[in-house]
């Protein structure tokens, strides 16, 4: 009896040592559902309003250029509306992925509820997966709403030719901005910090990535600068999924590899910063 009691005690975990040996699916799914429900409660603001904004941008630009407006992409001339619509879809996805991911931890730090994220038995990877999963889900909800609006406005031109490319660049582009949002929420101490990243980093990179123009028409020096913009690869690859041609000198394989590599780097940075507790546990 004594030997059995000693054996059972030796199998117990020491104080402070996690007893969940594998992935805590229950905790991970609970936090993910919480993140999704949070933006669904105000879906008019978080999903349908961005869709309306992107559709209005399309209407304004196509009306301004008229029916004769065309853009050359990879040597193929396409109507301006058909050219700009995929960029507007993925631009809405990127902006909303960042907005969702940059909110959770930041509002917890400001309101003093950050302990709700730190106390549950979730590993760093599970916490990061739930936060980014909620952001990517919101991005695809917005992207789907924008796509339906564009489909009603432009018709069959909005039917993807390469669905895998649309899903690849839509997913990894949204994940890239989700990682950036998590980094911003770790670093930021007030909402002004997140707004600064949105206004001075994300907005310029998005607008200068070829959303409203073809990079092929730029001077060689500006084409080179555009290829240092990670948003260019996301938008170019996403547009390829609809048009079947890519913008700029980067091939679709190069664009996909660059976006994947950026996600790996940002994911590792998010993981180690969350694990260290920098500006969160202090």
Task: Pick out its properties.
3% strand; 282 residues; mainly alpha; disordered N terminus; single chain; 12 helices
Structural features, described:
By secondary structure, the chain is an all-alpha fold. The chain has one domain (28-276). The protein is built from twelve helices and two strands, in the order αααββααααααααα. It has a two-stranded antiparallel sheet. Helix 4 runs antiparallel to helix 7 (124-154) and helix 4 (80-101) packs antiparallel against helix 9. The radius of gyration is 22 Å and the shape is globular. Residues 1-10 have low confidence and may be disordered.
Could you give a quick summary of the protein structure above?
The protein is built from 12 helices and 2 strands, in the order H-H-H-E-E-H-H-H-H-H-H-H-H-H. It has 282 residues and is mostly helical.
How is the topology of this model organized?
Elements: H1 2-11, H2 25-40, H3 43-65, E1 70-73, E2 76-79, H4 80-101, H5 104-111, H6 115-118, H7 124-154, H8 163-187, H9 191-207, H10 220-226, H11 230-243, H12 252-276
Antiparallel strand pairs: 1-2
Helix pairs in contact: 2-7, 3-4, 3-7, 4-7, 4-8, 4-9, 4-11, 5-8, 7-8, 8-11, 8-12, 11-12
Keywords: Cell membrane, Membrane, Transmembrane, Transmembrane helix, Transport
Transmembrane segments: 47-66, 127-154, 166-188, 194-215, 252-274
GO molecular function: ABC-type transporter activity
N to C succession of SSEs: HHHEEHHHHHHHHH
Distance between termini? 47 Å
Helix amount: over 70%
Unreliable segments of 5+ consecutive residues: 1-10
Domain unit count: 1
Count, helices: 12
Strand adjacency order, main sheet: 1-2
- Biggest sheet architecture: 2 strands, antiparallel
DSSP strand count: 2
């Amino acid at each position: 009896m004594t030997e059995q009691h000693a054996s059972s005690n030796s199998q117990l975990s020491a104080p402070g040592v996690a007893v969940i040996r594998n992935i805590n699916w229950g905790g991970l799914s609970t936090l993910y559902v919480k993140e999704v429900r949070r933006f669904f409660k105000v879906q008019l603001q978080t999903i349908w309003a961005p869709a309306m904004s992107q559709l209005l941008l399309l209407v304004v630009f196509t009306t301004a250029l008229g029916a004769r407006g065309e853009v050359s992409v990879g040597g193929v001339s396409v109507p301006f509306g058909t050219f700009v619509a995929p960029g507007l879809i993925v631009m809405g996805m990127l902006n909303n992925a960042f907005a969702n991911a940059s909110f959770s931890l930041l509002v917890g730090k400001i309101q003093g509820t950050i302990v709700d994220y730190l106390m549950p038995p979730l590993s760093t990877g599970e916490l990061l997966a739930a936060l980014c999963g909620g952001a990517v889900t919101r991005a695809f909800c917005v992207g789907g709403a924008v796509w339906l609006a564009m489909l009603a406005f432009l018709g069959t031109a909005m039917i993807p030719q390469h669905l895998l490319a649309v899903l690849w660049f839509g997913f990894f582009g949204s994940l890239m901005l989700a990682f950036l949002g998590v980094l911003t929420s770790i670093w930021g101490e007030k909402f002004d910090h997140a707004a600064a990243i949105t206004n001075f980093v994300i907005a310029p990179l998005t607008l200068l990535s070829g959303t409203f123009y073809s990079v092929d028409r730029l001077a060689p020096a500006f084409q080179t600068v555009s290829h240092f913009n990670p948003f260019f690869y996301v938008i170019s690859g996403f547009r390829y999924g609809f048009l079947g041609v890519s913008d700029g000198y980067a091939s679709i394989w190069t664009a996909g590899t660059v976006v994947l590599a950026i996600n790996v780097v940002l994911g590792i940075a998010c993981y180690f910063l969350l694990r260290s507790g920098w500006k969160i546990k202090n």
